[in-house]
Input
Amino acid sequence: MKQITLCITGGHLTPALAVIEEIMRQNSNWNLLFIGRSHAFEGGGSPTQEERLIRAFGIPFHALFTGRQGPSLWKFPIGLFQSFFLLASHRPTAVLSFGGYIALPVAIGAWILRIPIITHEQTGGLGLANKIIARLAWRVIFSSESGMPLRRALFNPPEKPSFTVDTKPPILYVTGGSTGAASLNALVYPLIAELTKTYTVIHQVGSGGVSEALRVQESLSLEAKRRYVISDYFDESNLAWIYRHCSLLVGRSGANTVAEVAALGVPALFIPLPWSAGNEQMNNARRLAKEGMAVVMKQKKLASGILIRQIDEIMQTIHQLRKAAGTVAKMYPHSGAEKVVISIRSMLS
Output
């Protein structure tokens, strides 16, 4: 088989990491490079985890300067020029896209250079960027058919996490996804003092939420501080431990989070992102709610007091959600990453 150089790009990092792990497990002779973003919010926000995590694999990382719409649209030609230059310099065998505005200039550059494009679609509804990428792609892989690529470490949690945590109370895991969610954090912060009377709260706040979370933590009593664990980002080892030990996930319902809780059998209280493309997050949440393992609440008009009452009500009958979640986990496919790599290999062989 010829030497393969694969350029990976896209805004959905979690499935990309799972596929990278599988490529390295199966094909150590493949050359990989990654085109992504060094900062959230189109280059003007907090640093993302992308560069750190990709470089940890020993993969060259190239940051792109681009924008998605409105005031940031002027950045797109710059991103397109950067993409064209990078692809012309490295001449990859193919480009593997995980969607989003960051992948669009890379896909267009690859199309101009006649480099095959494979795109992985995590959701049922395509956004504008993904619709364009899908038209340019040689192959589109849908997670609804292959299963979501999941990191192997999630199924092998460590005995202990790297952080100190009080495991005596039930554990709530609050998350807005890998980059956090400012509006969700703002809803939860006023509840922490009350929640920590009954629960241990593990809160992934995102890089932009750390300072406020630390302020909230500092205001707590000594015992409550031990029951409020915060981090901008939990790596897969700590996340595996959290999923194994938490009683309930409270958070957004992005495709990756939904896939992980489904595969691992974690009951969830979802508060979908109201402005997600094509109402994607609400649709994701409702699918698991239909299976009986999740409860869905709309963020609009959701006050902190209503949220805490809902959490308490769910925890009173958590065994019912846990039973349904266990049934879903038994049926959920774990081979998504492997199927993506097989599809890439079959196309390029």
Q: What stands out?
A: Residues 154-331 form a domain with the Rossmann fold fold (CATH 3.40.50.2000). The chain has a mean pLDDT of 91.
